[in-house]
Amino acid sequence: MSAVTQIDVSEEEDGLRLDRWFKRRFPSLTHGRLEKLLRTGQVRVDGARAKANARLAAGQIVRVPPLGAELQPAPVYEREVSDKDAEMIRGTVIYKDKSVLALNKPAGLAVQGGTKTERHLDGMLDALTFEARERPRLVHRLDRDTSGVIMLARNARAAAALARSFKQKDARKIYWALVVGVPSPRRGTINLALTKQGGPRAERVFAAEEGDEDARNAVTHYSVVATVSDKFSWVAFMPMTGRTHQIRAHAAAIGAPIVGDGKYGGVKAHPGGEIPRQLHLHARSLDIAHPDGGKRLYVEAELPPHMKKSWTLLGLDERDAKDAFEGLEI
Predict the structure, then answer these.
(1) 3-state secondary structure of 176
(2) 73: cis peptide before it, omega within 30°?
(3) How far apart are CA 115 and CA 232, in angstroms?
(4) CB 15 within 8 A of CB 56
(5) Buried b (16+ CB within 10 A) or exposed e, 10-22
(6) Whole-prediction pTM value?
(7) Alpha helix (H) ranges present in the chain?
(8) Is 143 annotated as catalytic?
(9) 41-94, pLDDT tens digit by residue?
(10) Are 268 and 286 in contact (CB under 8 A)?
(11) Which of 14, 143, 145, 261 is catalytic?
C-alpha cells in the first residue's frame, strides 16, 4: 500500500479491537509499528485518534496510512474441498443463522490437522461459508473420536463473543457416554487436576501429583442416567473446565472407563460382544449466550450410528436423560 486508504468496518468486524482488526487485514504489520502509527495519529477511526484496544463498530471508517509495498492486505486463499467432503460436512449442520453454525461432528473426524492428519474439519470450512463473505471460525474443540455438537462463528465479532463465553464458563456442555461398570456414587463431581507427561505434544493426560507445576485444575459433574445390571452405565457428564481428554480421564479415574476408550481404560474398555469398539462419548448439547445478545442458544445433536446401535442393544431410552442434572447447583 503506497497511499492513504479509508476502509469501512464491516458488520462481521463489529466489536473487534483495532489492533486485531489490523492483524486480520494486514497480518504482516508488526504490533510495534502499529503502535507508532497510532501514537503519531496516522491511524484514525472516523477522523479521530484511537488506541490499539479501541472497539470498532460496523460502519466506522479506519484511516490506513501508506504501509509500503511489502505490506499488502491479507490475501484470500481458496481451499479445495472435495465434492464428497463438502456434501458430507454440510450434512452435519444442525443450526445456522447469520452469526453461528452448529455441527454434529462425526466420530473419527479430527477438528484440526497435524502430523499424519490431512483430512480434518478445519480444512473443510470453506464448504460452510453459504451466503457469508468469509469462512467460519472454530471457537472450541472436540477430540477426533468424540462426536457431537461443535460451534462455529461466522464472523470475527461472533468469534470474539463466543470465545468470551467459553473463557468465562458461560457455556453448558452435556456429554453422553456409555461406561463400563457403575460409578459410585451415582451422582457427583470429579475434581481431579490433570497433567500431560511427555511435553506439550503428549497425547495422554494423567492425574496430577501434589506439587506438579504443570497441573491444570479439572472439574466434571456426572450423573448416572441408567444402568444395565452391573456391566454398563449410561452417564451424563457436564465438564466445568475444558482440559484435553478431561472426561475420558475422569471417567477412568472413578473406575468407570468409557466403552471403546482403550487409551484410558485398557482392555476393560472393550467388553466385546455386539457392542461396537468405537469410543462411546458424544457431545449431546450446548447451551451458550448467543453472540448477537439478548438470548441463549441451545443446540442438541443426535447420537452417532455406533452409539445408537449400543443404545438399542442395551434397551436404553434417550428420553430418560431429561432430568440428569436437575437441582444441581453450579
Answers:
(1) strand
(2) no
(3) 35
(4) yes
(5) bebbbbbebbbbb
(6) 0.79
(7) 18-25, 31-39, 83-90, 156-167, 246-253, 262-265, 305-314
(8) yes
(9) 999 998 899 999 998 887 788 999 988 765 665 555 556 889 999 999 999 999
(10) no
(11) 143
